[in-house]
Amino acid sequence: MNHSHFDYVIVGNGLAGLQLALKLASDSYFDGVKIALIDPLSKTKNDKTWSFWEKHSTPWDNLTEKEWPQASFITKSKEISLNLYPYRYKTIRSIDFYKFSISVLSQKSNVVFITDAVTSITETNDLVHVTTTSRTYTSEHVFDSRVPDSFNNSGNKSIRLTQHFKGYVIDARSNVFNNKNLVMMDYRLKDGDQTTFMYVLPFSKRKALIEFTYFTEQLVEESVYDTFIKTYIKDYLKIDKYHITETETGQIPMSTFRFEKFNTSKITKIGTGGGWVKASTGYSFKHTEKKVTQIINNIKLNRIPSFKLFKSKYKFYDKVFLKVLKDENSKGEWVFQQLYSKNSIQSIFRFLDEESTLIDELKIMWSLLSWRFLKAFFKTL
Question: Is residue 200 part of a domain?
Fold first, then answer.
């Protein structure tokens, strides 16, 4: 194989890059197509946890760490129990996904892994030139997961919040968790008036991921997360003796930034760098799967790969939601309490999956009807 020219170059071996590579490599339509995956990291660490909900079996079931049939939403004044049926909430450790993907792709003669950092991507009339720290490659099409530089520019006028968090995986000395029930959001312990909450995934009666999450504009020192997590474990979970086996941190953009404007006929932005993270929630696993499927279909139909990757209606809904959280961040708890208490979890899941019916959408909008949402609605028109 010519190791300087490829049909497709995928920049970044994260969720989007590896899902796309797996889909390409498993489809006979792309037999013989030369694919390169370029990433500076070898992906040997568990750096995050991906969660999603699903009604049916998935290609990822063998990688699923745990699934839950029930969930809770908690505030100081109420606890809402959520029977997820026919959905189940599932979680996958990134290291398991990386190992599986790399194992499968390494057996493909038309796939090459390149451990290097991309410094620039330049499009010409015929090809795309991908320059790394050590050399330049050419490609017919590049799938680029890097976040555009302009996203971080001070002149960026888009709404920009960050979902940022830290989590502990702990082993308790006794059976303290209900391992059939996850905690979606627990607002009993918050950082002032900001939209902050606890998220708890119990893997067994003794083991759980406990994560403190912000939906805010500003970040915090890592010690702040530690203080809240330790307080929650001690005062709310009533656990005195436990061992921290893993930690994870993350920063996920929640933004109206138009990532898709960087797509061309020869370059497709993917993953976080392509705006594939659901702007209002930070969930990405299922959205990535759907967008990868759309890209494959587009290529087969001789369309540009980025054709119809986004639904404008849901981008507008996300924009209104983010406008409320930006202008009145203290109202986040109220927003989510209204959402979970006045709608079925099934209709919420359909809405967040961008598969909702008009009735679902009207009910959700009615449940959130308030002056703050009306202001946000008219400001985003």
Answer: yes
